[in-house]
Write a structure and sequence with these properties.
The complex is a heterodimer of chains A (about 600) and B (about 240). Chain A is an alpha+beta fold. The two termini of chain A are about 25 Å apart. Chain A is about 40% helix and about 15% strand. In chain B, strands 1-2-11 form a three-stranded antiparallel beta sheet. In chain B, β3 and β4 form a beta hairpin. The longest helix of chain B is centred in the C-terminal third of the chain and has 13 residues. Classes of the chains: A alpha+beta (about 600), B alpha+beta (about 240). At the A-B interface, α4, α7 and β13 of A face α1 and α3 of B. Bound molecules: iron/sulfur cluster (SF4) (4 copies).
């Protein structure tokens, strides 16, 4: 049986418990319906977890790295890999299942996804648990599990180097966890090239639970395409839509960091644990400042004409090499959200978080919560193991980061995230515990941005800023993150047609805008069905009280606050438009059938 | 083109300086700091030639050049029609080497004047003076005569130990691959590089010119950019 064009029709399954690895076929129908990345990952998760409440840290939970149909072809920005697994972080308000949690997916750029496809796989699925700390080497068809005990506790920058040295071939592309993942801190990340991350949702913790320190892959093959000539023609068009454009240049110039000053002005930045939307010192940590004082290089992922990643170097007390940053998310979560405006200090925090293998967003959010609780006298210095966790203190932030990664003292509790902390501290602190379903919010504040509030409330992995501010965008993003293409170039309208053309030429399945969104809707609905089965209901699609109670006191959006009634009305309309029951949020059978999800 | 000598360093902004640090041709010209392989072309007295030059300061490590090169130099036959391939980077004659800290070195044949690669070839020269590995007189590119090549890999070893290490012996035949063809005068890597990091330029005879391996180039760039010489990873 020949595989569907654009695919190999197989994934690599590595079982760390038995040490066995094998290729497993993926049906053309599944590839047709779920495409790759986030979508195919969700389908594989659904197939493998046949009942709700599976412990995310149990050997049963598959950890999956899924590229998409664009991956391994020279399509602009076709760099992404989606890491899909069951979340070790999220939890419903109430459920019959003790380990109930959502699906989680985390999308990572770089070179790992393309290389997986060069090696001959549409995805990598890891199950089981190794007896000792191990790493996996994939060299085309050859797969080995090797002892990694000597690397125990190694930080990601050092491991990035040591791993390649051990492998003896720079062509390997690697991913790995840091000490935090080994210690099972729930919001641990998976790191790639020392500065790229699958950060959100705790995939690094799941990797740690499998006793898996790293994965290396290299390959010599390449997937096929359905229509070669059409592919080449569309590729030319896609390049033309981006190359040398003002749009691409603006990404190369500042990356996402441009928004640090922009969003602060607009009143949509996370500042002082989401108390404000504007940071008066934003220019000190923004893109212009970084360009002037820090950055030395613009760095691109595979075949990307944008180059949004920036590396640099800082001097002084906090000086050193900076693999990436500030980006918008990292710069805001560790900067304005903590009232830190010292650029080298901010970059030190960002660098250490990656080095330890923690999620930047959750870490920044947790420390912001603790700073506020400390300021309000709900916790004292003793609670914080002596750390004087004041707003803007770099040293206190650095100390707290180390504690979290080591699960040492207060770090053990802080590692549980703001939901866990608020439960422990009480005293009304849950009002400013900024999470949805247990996952912390990102760097976009919402008192003045209700649509983004909808994204946070209804996203499948908990508070997700990437999910989309309305149904159409949510569907589109779910699909986009299933193709292997990066989200950033797709704001350029001229790319839309060539992108759809490329996808059609590769897969032999005709995609227009509608068909593209339809696939995304299918993926989003399967995620919802999964979460619903775990016990997530409307009450879980809630936003923290702060957004309805604490109006901004400064900035362009001074006075802005969300209206609860308006928000609830918007939610009801959202469920109805989705074809879900507005009370329970259960997806209707008619909708599921329409989407080809009748296997549920 | 970016700065090439010390005079130009005066009066440039920090960014210009950083950007200007690395320009080379499959090789590196770095304010004349490299003296490992002395100015081969400068001494050779050969006429000027055109070749691929990399501006390491502009290169982002995106590897588009690899795919463009492979696409052109590894065409495929589709329904009896020869078309550019899908660009599997494994077949590229330009190779992007990535390091930590973040340095990417696009390596391409430096078209060395003294061709240690060709000199290492043990095959008897033909009447035109060509060994199985030889320089094409018209384009100055390095070529392999598959019919006479015995697959001994001497050319690859010479290049790797003395220059850029671009030659990859074919895993089955041992014959050399990876030498830049200049794409028949229409270099695809230059055309497709999204960041203008590659150019197809005339190399002056008086230009100091050194064909170095990617590790040496990366170490120098890291020292200039990040102030560090500690490098991880495999060689
Ligand atoms: S295409 Fe240009 S920027 Fe990209 S790796 Fe090659 S030389 Fe560097
Ligand atoms: S193959 Fe190597 S030694 Fe020969 S000309 Fe090219 S870079 Fe120089
Ligand atoms: S591999 Fe072929 S071309 Fe190279 S040195 Fe040996 S005989 Fe000459
Ligand atoms: S000029 Fe042609 S053959 Fe040479 S490196 Fe560039 S694309 Fe490859």
């Amino acid at each position: 049986m020949s595989a569907k064009p654009g695919y190999y029709g197989k994934i690599l399954n590595v079982d760390l418990s038995t040490g066995k690895s094998e290729t497993v076929p993926v049906s053309s129908r599944d590839l047709d319906l779920f495409v790759g990345g986030q979508g195919l990952g969700m389908k594989l998760l659904w197939d493998r977890l046949k009942k709700p409440g599976v412990d995310a840290l149990s050997p049963e939970n598959p950890l999956m790295f899924i590229p998409g149909p664009f991956s391994g072809l020279p399509v602009p920005s076709s760099s992404r890999t989606c890491v899909v697994t069951k979340s070790p972080i999220t939890a419903p308000m109430a459920s019959d299942h003790p380990h109930a949690s959502t699906v989680t997916y985390s999308n990572m750029g770089g070179f790992f996804g393309p290389e997986l496809r060069f090696a001959g796989y549409d995805g990598l699925v890891i199950t089981g648990k190794a007896k000792e700390l191990s790493y996996i080497v994939i060299d085309d068809g050859k797969v080995e599990i090797r002892d990694a005990r000597k690397f125990r506790g190694m930080r990601t920058d050092a491991f990035d180097k040591a791993f390649l040295e051990e492998l003896g071939d720079r062509k390997f592309k690697t991913v790995y966890i840091g000490p935090a993942g080994e210690k099972l801190v729930p919001y641990s990340s998976i790191i790639h090239t020392a500065g790229r991350a699958a950060g959100r949702g705790g995939s690094g913790c799941v990797m740690g639970s499998k006793n898996l320190k790293g994965i290396a892959v290299k390959g010599t093959g390449q997937p096929s395409v359905a229509d070669h000539e059409r592919f080449l023609a569309a590729l030319e068009k896609a390049r033309k839509a981006l190359y040398g454009t003002a749009y691409a240049k603006s990404w190369a110039e500042q990356g996402t960091a441009r928004a640090i000053v922009g969003n602060s002005k607009a009143g949509t930045e996370s500042v002082r644990n989401y108390r404000e939307g504007t940071f008066t010192e934003a220019d000190k940590i923004g893109g212009d400042a970084a360009r002037r004082d820090v950055w030395v290089r613009d760095i691109a992922c595979f075949c990307c004409p944008l180059a949004c990643k920036k590396s640099g170097v800082t001097k002084g007390k906090y000086g050193g090499v900076v693999h990436d940053g500030p980006e918008y998310e990292t710069g805001v979560m560790l900067g304005s959200n903590l009232m830190i405006s010292d650029m080298p200090g901010l970059l030190k925090a960002i660098t250490v978080i990656d080095d330890l293998g923690l999620d930047q967003i959750s870490t920044g959010n947790v420390i912001g919560f603790l700073m506020e609780a400390y300021e309000k006298g709900m916790i004292d210095r003793k609670f914080l193991d002596g750390i004087d966790l004041k707003w803007g203190s770099v040293d206190a932030t650095l100390a707290m980061i180390e504690k979290i990664a080591a699960r040492d003292g207060v770090g053990e509790l802080a590692g549980k995230g703001v939901a866990g902390l608020a439960r422990h501290i009480g005293q009304g602190s849950e009002k400013f515990a900024i999470h949805v379903k247990g996952l912390e919010l990102a760097a976009h504040n919402i008192q003045a941005n209700q649509p983004r509030g909808l994204s946070y409330a209804t996203a499948s992995r908990g508070a997700c800023h990437m999910s989309g501010d309305n149904i159409a965008m949510q569907n589109r993003r779910a699909m986009l993150d299933s193709t292997g293409m990066c989200f950033f170039p797709t704001f350029e309208p001229a790319l839309e047609e060539p992108m759809l053309e490329l996808l059609s030429a590769i897969t032999g399945h005709e995609y227009d805008k509608k068909e593209f969104e339809k696939a995304g809707e299918r993926i989003f609905n399967l995620e919802k069905v999964f979460n619903y089965r775990e016990g997530f209901r409307r009450a879980d699609d809630r936003l923290p009280d702060r957004f309805f109670e604490d109006a901004f006191t400064i900035g362009a959006k001074k006075g802005a606050v969300l209206d609860r009634k308006e928000f609830e009305t918007m939610l009801t309309r959202y469920y109805k438009d989705r074809g879900w029951d507005p009370e329970s949020t259960k997806p209707g059978t008619a909708k599921l059938k329409e989407l080809g999800l009748d296997f549920i | 083109m970016t700065t090439e000598n010390k005079e130009n360093r005066r009066g440039v902004t920090r960014r210009d300086f950083i950007k200007g640090v690395g320009v080379g041709g499959g090789a590196l010209v770095l304010f004349g700091q490299f003296g490992v392989h002395s100015a081969a072309w400068a001494l050779s007295g050969e006429p000027a030639l055109k070749m691929i030059v990399v501006d390491y300061g502009k290169c982002t490590g995106c590897r588009t050049c690899e795919t463009a090169c492979a696409s052109r130099n590894r065409p495929v036959s589709v329904k009896g029609k020869e078309l550019p391939g899908l660009g599997n980077p494994i077949h590229a004659n330009i190779r992007v080497h990535s390091f930590n800290p973040d340095v990417d070195v696009a390596g391409v044949c430096a078209m060395c004047a003294d061709t240690p690669c060709a000199k290492a070839c043990p095959v008897e020269p033909d009447p035109r003076g060509r060994r199985a590995f030889y320089r094409d007189d018209a384009t100055h590119t390095m070529r392999n005569d598959e019919k006479r090549c015995i697959g001994c890999q001497s050319c690859a070893k010479a290049c790797a130990s003395q220059r850029t290490g671009v030659i990859r012996p074919n895993p089955e035949t041992g014959r050399p691959e990876g030498m830049c063809t200049l794409c028949g005068g229409d270099p695809q890597c230059v055309k497709r590089c999204p960041f203008g990091a590659l150019s197809y330029v005339e190399v002056r005879r008086d230009r100091k010119f050194y064909g170095l391996g990617p590790e040496k180039i990366a170490a120098e760039l890291a020292r200039n950019w990040y102030g560090t010489t500690s490098f991880g990873g495999a060689q």
